[in-house]
Amino acid sequence: MGFSFRDDMAPSAPLLTVRGSEGLYMVNGPPHFTESTVFPREPGKNCRVYAFSKDGSLFAWASGEKVSIIDVTNNGPLHSLHLPKVVCLEFSPQNTVLATWQPYTTSKDGTAGTPNLQLYDVKTGACLKSFIQKKMQNWCPSWSDDEIICARNVNNEVHFFENNNFNTIVNKLHLQKVNDFVLSPGPHPYKVAVCVPGSKGAPSFVRLYQYPNFTGPHAALANKSFFKADKVTMLWNKKATAVLVIASTEVDKTGASYYGEQTLHYIATNGESAVVQLPKNGPIYDVVWNSSSTEFCAVYGFMPAKATVFNLKCDPVFDFGTGPRNAACYSPHGHILVLAGFGNLRGQMEVWDVKNYRLISKPVASDSTYFAWCPDGEHILTATCAPRLRVNNGYKIWHYTGSVLYKHEVPSNGELWQVSWQPFLDGVFPAKAITYQAVPSEVPSGEPKVATAYRPPALRNKPVTNSKLHEEEPPQNMKPHPGSDKPLSKTALKNQRKHEAKKAAKQKYSLQEARNDKSPDLAANAPPSTTRNPVSQTSSGDPEVDRKIKNLKKKLKAIEQLKEQAASGKQLEKNQLEKIQKETALLQELEDLELGV
Q1: Which pTM value belongs to this model?
Q2: What are the tens digits of pLDDT across the range 416-456?
Q3: 573-577 contacts, C-beta under 8 A, 24 or more apart
Q4: Integer Cα distance of 7 and 67 in angstroms
Q5: d(Cα 328, Cα 477) in Å, to the nearest integer?
Q6: What burial class does residue 53 get, using C-beta atoms within 10 Å of its C-beta: 0-12 exposed, 13-18 middle, 19+ buried?
Q7: How far apart are CA 66 and CA 152, in angstroms?
Q8: What is the DSSP letter of 165?
Q9: Is 82 exposed, middle or buried (0-12, 13-18, 19+ CB in 10 A)?
């Protein structure tokens, strides 16, 4: 089965590549899920790495003895390279070069080791150039999408080559202690973002340049400096008009966070920059651009984490509220967003239509360590892989409406190490209209039952209170409503919720008063009460009993107010929760006193 197709035919479904103790093999994508004949299964546990080309037409893997390259579209082998120790592989964007990396070693006498980064011509199999690259981090050279330029970070400099001629360094970008760079996506003009970490009290900074204009006082397109940045992550949008910078410290000196401290910055190629104001304190778990390049989503804050979509002015557009999440991922077409909680969270996912900001589904993928959108924009891959988790290894293919279409479980004595989709270029799969109805499936999702909260034996026969450990925030549209100049602030929204809860409590108390009235019309029209009403105007004739009844009513009224506060989202103190737990006993005592009247 090959992958060639006519122009008038829809493209074949992407393949799945699986690497584990069962060997290296490929599986046909939806709807078939049968093992593919494009790649005969390679048994054994020696494969350490594989890689597809950007368009999915070429595939390379390292078997522990050699690196092999095949053409997936015509099912034919291309080259076999004798490289037994390779652990990293990557194709250049136009399938011209295959980069390989193996750990750097020195000889016993202390002399310099041999070059460990090789660049091979995919057509001929010849080695174009070898470099010494000691660190595995950022090992691979970076190409522009058209491969006109290629860059490497070497000793405080970024070296630039042109047209894959690696014997001549055409340009250099020199900055003291530059430790990272990212080339922009897309065509000419090429841009590059570089980062220089701070030292000796000086701030870190990120600068944007347009190739090859690197010198001169006004060469930089934009510059942004900031403190508290032991590590920096730079994310270009697809149109290469702006960069998001996540600045992180290894340790939060305030002691507020185990994850250190993070800040989010926005830098545009027109020179504009800003700090993205995140309404909730805590770590920044994930930040992703939409493929439209006009908005981005951030997941941040102490658990339960918030997720917010921002526009290019760094203004919030939509707030998804709080939830158990630490990851966000837009679909390839940018019309669906998945918010998820993986790793040490339960694997709950929220699938959102981001055009209408409407929730599509809420599937649960327990114990997942990997997540990826299929290039067709309709299917999702989740997997549990070793060494992160060595039990219950396997993978699932979902439709975004929440249906599990295929499930593969690795035997208990086996392990799954890696699984991924075959990539395709943008535009190969057209965007389809979003559906909200779950697609039919014969595969059970196997979602775990939601466990009920533990209750100690002394409380098991007592009413359940509505108190919550965390204050939960619902999703809310941050766009201005018709007739308003701007969206409500966080304080205004909080006050609005309090006002509505107070109003509801007042209405409920008035209803209780009316129900207790002897008027037959009001009593007939009042809805049934869920709690016994302590309000009564009867006098016992004994001042001491009346005083006790009055005090009990006062306490029950206070408990009712606390329950209303808990229902509105307020976090109650321990002594307030203890008061609520006494409600049943107080009601019984009041009833006994009133019966004796």
Answers
A1: 0.73
A2: 999 999 999 988 998 899 998 888 877 776 655 555 666 67
A3: 577/465, 577/467
A4: 33
A5: 18
A6: buried
A7: 26
A8: B
A9: exposed
